[in-house]
Amino acid sequence: MPRPADVPRPSNSLHRPLLLIPFLALALVLSALVALPAPTARAAEALTDPIPERPAASGIGLTVEEFASFPKTDPPPGPVTDPRLVRHARINYLSELPDGSGRMAVPDLNGKLYLVEDGKPHVYLDIAATFAPAFFASRGLGQGFGFVTFDPGFKKNGRFYTVHTEAATATTAQPDMRQATNTNFHGIITEWTADDPAADTFSGTRRELLRIGFTGQIHGIQQIDFNPTAQPDDKDYGLLYVAVGDGGQGARNTEPQNLSRPHGKILRIDPRGSDSANGKYGIPAANPFTGTPGALGEIYAYGMRDPHRFSWDPAGSHRMYLGHIGEHAIESVYEVRAGDNLGWSEREGAFVFDKTATDPCARILPLPEDDARYGYTYPVAAYDHDPPAGWNCTSDVGRAIVGGFVYRGQSMPELQGAYIFGDLVDGRLLYAESAKLRRGSGDLAPLYELMVYDESGKRVTMQDLAGDDRVDLRFGRDAEGELYLLSKANGKIWKVTGTRTFASCDTGDTKVADVMGAENWAPVTPAKWRFPGSEVILAEAGAQRPGPRRPFEYAVLTAGPRFGPVRIEGEVRLDTPVEVTNRDVIIVFGHQSDTKFNYAHLSTDNTIYPHNGIFVVNDADRKRIEDQWNGRTGAPPAITDTAWHTVRVVHCPGTGEIAVYVDGSNRPLMTAVDTTLTSGRVGFGSFDNIGRLRELKVTGTPIAE
Asked: According to the UniProt entry, where is the signal peptide (predicted)?
C-alpha cells in the first residue's frame, strides 16, 4: 500500500511513517541499523546470476529499410570528455504529429527538433539556441534536449511540450522542486504554442511549466508524454506524464521512496490547470497522493531509478509499460498503475538491493520471507545485464534496457500483441508476449530475441546497421502502429517493414525415409552400432581419434543423394544415464568427409564450449558457430533425461542459416549463420556417450556427387 511521504525509508525495518516515531526511538532504530553485521556477512546470500534464464531465440527477423539520416551535431556548450557523447547525432525518439499530416518529430539531445517529411529531416525548432547559454548537453548521457510530445489537439491549438537541461551556474532561475543536496543541473518542461500548427518551422510563444533541480548529471527527466489511448471524455485525456529519474543519487540515498520529492517518480500533471505550487499547471484530483499529507500531489508512481521509456498498449485495457534501467544488474519492464511503488532503492527489480555491500557482486539479494507486507510492484519481464570487466558476477544480456511498444500494427502479424523493446547499448532486440506480462503473478514473462534483415535480405545486427558496437538504440512508432529503430551512433532511423522467418528457405521435396537398416549406414566403428530395423543404435561409446577435435563416433546415412538445402527430422534418445554430467548425442549434416562436416550437439550441459551448440569441422578442430553461445553459456540444454525427443534441423546453404528445433517447438533452440559447407550427407552419433535414433526423415535438394 502507498505510504505517507516524509522521510525516506533507510532500511527494510523502517517501512512505517517515520513522523509517527518519536525522535529518540528513531535514533535507537538508526543505531541498531549501524550495528548490523558487515556486508561480508551477507555475501553468502548474494545472487551473482539473479536471472539465469536468457532470452530465447524466436526465429523471427525484422526486415528494415532506411527511413531517414540526420546531420552531424555536437553537444553544446562543450568541451566533451565522455566518448559516449561523441555520436553522429543524438536522436532520441520518433513520433508522428497528431494532426494527420504524416510528419514525424525527432529530437536530438544536442538541441534541435526535426520534422521528417518524405524521409527528409529539417529543423523545426532550435532548442539549444533558444535557451543558450544556459542550455547544457556536454556531460551526462541524457542531458540536453531530451524529449518532445504533442498535445492531442495540436492540429487546432498548436501546443507541444519539450524537456531540456540547463547548468545551474548558467541561469538565475530557481527550481520549483529540487534534491536534498546541491543543485547542479535543471530539467525544464516548456510549453510551446505554434502560430500556425501546419507550418514547417516554428513561430509562436512559449512558457515554462516546471523546473526540477538535480544534483547529478544523469537520470534527469527522461520522457514526457500524453496517453494516446485516452479519449476526450476520459479523465486521463490531456494529462502529461513525466518520468523523472533519481538524479543518479538513489543508490546512496532513499529519495526515490520520499513522496515529498519528485525524483525517482512518474508525475502526472494537467498543463491547462493552475493549482500547482508554481501556478503553472494543475494537479489532477485522481492522482493517488493528492490527499496524503506532505506528499507531492503530482506523483503518479514512485520508487524508480531511471524510468527511461514508457508507452501504452493501443489495444485491450491500454496497459502502461515502463522500461526501467537498473543500477547493478536488473533491467526491467513494469506494468505501471497509479500509486505503484517499484521499490528502488530498497529493491532492484524483484530483488533486495544492498547499498552497503563493498563487493560489486554482492549487491543483489533474495527477497525476505515477509516481502509481501511492503507492497512493492515488481517487473513483468526482466533480464540481468552483463557486468563490467573485472566483476565476477554472471549475467547474460546487454547493459541497459530501452523501453518500446506493444505492437498493434499490420505489417508484422507474427508479432501482433508483442511488447517489443531492446538493449540500448548493444542494440539487441527483444520481445515478450503481452498476454504473458502478468502483473503480480510472481513469474517473469519469457523473453525472445529478434533478428534483423536489411533491405537486401541479408541478416545483420543493429551494430552492423549503426556501424558501431555501441548502438544507442531507441524506438519510435507512427500513427499506424508501425515501428522504427533509431541509432545515435550514425544518426539513422530504420522503418520496420515486416518479418522474416529464420532458415525459411525452400529445402526441396526429395525425401529419404525408412532407412533404419544397416546397409544404409556407414559408421566410423561398425562394431559399436546396432541396427534392429526400427532404430539406429550407438551401443558403445566412441573414443577420441587422431586429427581435428570432432565427435568420436557417428554413422553417416549413405542412402539417397547428398543434399544442399535440407530438413532433417527424427527422434533421438540419450541412453547414458543423465546423472553422469555432460551427456550428448549429435545430428550430422553437410558431411563431406571425416574431417569436414557440420553437427548439432544436443547435450544436458550448456556451460562448456563443446556442448549444446552448432559446430563446423573443416579440416581443423570443431568451431562453435551458433548465435546463442556468449562465451559462458549457450541455449538451454537440449536433452536432460533419457526420454525420446523430437529434433528438426534445417540448413539453408544459400544464406548459411541453420536452425535446430527440439520437442516440437516452433521457435528454434539454436540458430547459426555459416557458409563454410554448402552440401553433404546427414548422420547421427555422439562424442563419448551412447544413444539412438528413430523415425528419421530427410527432405532436401539433391546435389550431384
From this structure: none
Rounded Cα distance between 250 and 264, Å, is 8
Cell numbers standing for residue 390 = 573485472
**Largest separation between any pair of C-alpha atoms in the chain:** 90
Residue 395: per-residue pLDDT: 66
Work out the pLDDT band at 271, boundaries 50, 70, 90.
very high
Integer CA distances (angstroms), 470 to 51, 238, 329, 478, in order = 24, 36, 19, 25
Q: Residues with Cβ < 8 Å from 390, sequence gap 6 or more? A: none
Write down the domain spans for the chain.
45-69+418-501, 218-399, 510-702
Q: Is residue 245 a contact partner of residue 264, using CB atoms and an 8 Å limit? A: yes
pLDDT digit string, tens, across residues 419-454: 999 999 999 999 999 999 999 999 999 999 999 999
- Which CATH architecture best describes the domain 510-702? Sandwich (2.60)
Q: Residue 12: how many CB atoms within 10 A of its CB? A: 15
User: In three state form, how does the secondary structure of 77-123 look?
Assistant: CCCCCCHHHCCCCCECCEEECCCCCCCEEEEECCCEEEEEECCEEEE
Residue holding cell 550407438?
A: 538
Tens-digit pLDDT profile for residues 193-214? 999 999 999 999 999 999 999 9
pLDDT tens column, 573-628: 999 998 888 999 999 999 999 999 999 999 999 999 999 999 999 999 999 999 99
φ, ψ (nearest 5 deg) of residue 527:
-65, -20
Half-sphere exposure of 554 (CA within 13 A, CB side): 29
